[in-house]
Specification:
CATH architecture: 3-Layer(aba) Sandwich
Helix content: 40-55%
Strand order of the largest sheet: 3-2-1-4-5-7-6
Number of domains: 1
Order of helices and strands: HHEHEHEEHEHHHEE
Shape: globular
Number of helices: 8
Radius of gyration: 17 Å
Number of strands: 7
Structural class: alpha/beta
Bound molecules: S-adenosylmethionine
Amino acid sequence: MMNVSGGQPSSGEDRARQVHEIFSRIAPRYDLLNRVLSLSVDRWWRRRAVRALDCSRNDSARYLDACAGTCDLAIELATRPDFRGTVVALDFAEPMLRRGRGKSARLPVHPLCGDAQHLPFADESFDGAMVAFGVRNLAHLDLGLAELRRVLRDGSPLVVLEFTIPPNPIVRAAYLWYFRHILPAVGRIVSGHRWAYSYLPASVGEFPGPQALGQRLLDAGFSTVRWQLLTFGIAAIHVGTR
Ligand SMILES: C[S@@+](CC[C@H](N)C(=O)[O-])C[C@H]1O[C@@H](n2cnc3c(N)ncnc32)[C@H](O)[C@@H]1O
């Protein structure tokens, strides 16, 4: 990721601190920018991710939305007509959750401030977990995946929605141009944050591709890992079973 001066990628605690700062500062404009920059396609991606979770329709079922941000994914799940149970929406940036609380007050969604790499839950306490555009931001991806596996019951799914680099060279060229030029400029103007939306393309560029992420899920102990590309390969959904 970019550091505060817009220079070198950072890692570890430095990265966690910078990610926390970015999302705390852009929280008031985060939803608006998602809609504008993706032309609302992000909503469709989240809907697909929730469908991939294949929730159990059980009143006592518990689901985790990790790196929940403003709770859009948790809300997408909780407002499904056939949904039963509760969703814990965990994020370490309180200002993001605050927006989510406002939107989910009447729903079975419980926003909780916490670190996805040190989940404050007992082993095997969830029937499903999901992360949208979150694992890319973790300072230690493997630690986060191991934690997600730990809190899932045996046989329960983890769904990961993330940006990817499109495989088709023409689509990729157009996408990278948009990602490197338009997105940072619009992001800077609307969010008022100087480099938050330069961080986005930088973080996607250095994140493992779909095949490599599938392998990381297997290495973390998930079985039957599968994935599908969305919208010309701009995003991907991975599903792993605990
Ligand atoms: C790009 S946003 C995604 C938010 C939401 N899932 C969505 O679909 O819009 C990434 C979120 O991950 C959170 N995050 C990053 N690292 C985290 C960590 N270690 N623990 C908890 N949340 C984290 C950030 O605070 C931010 O809200």
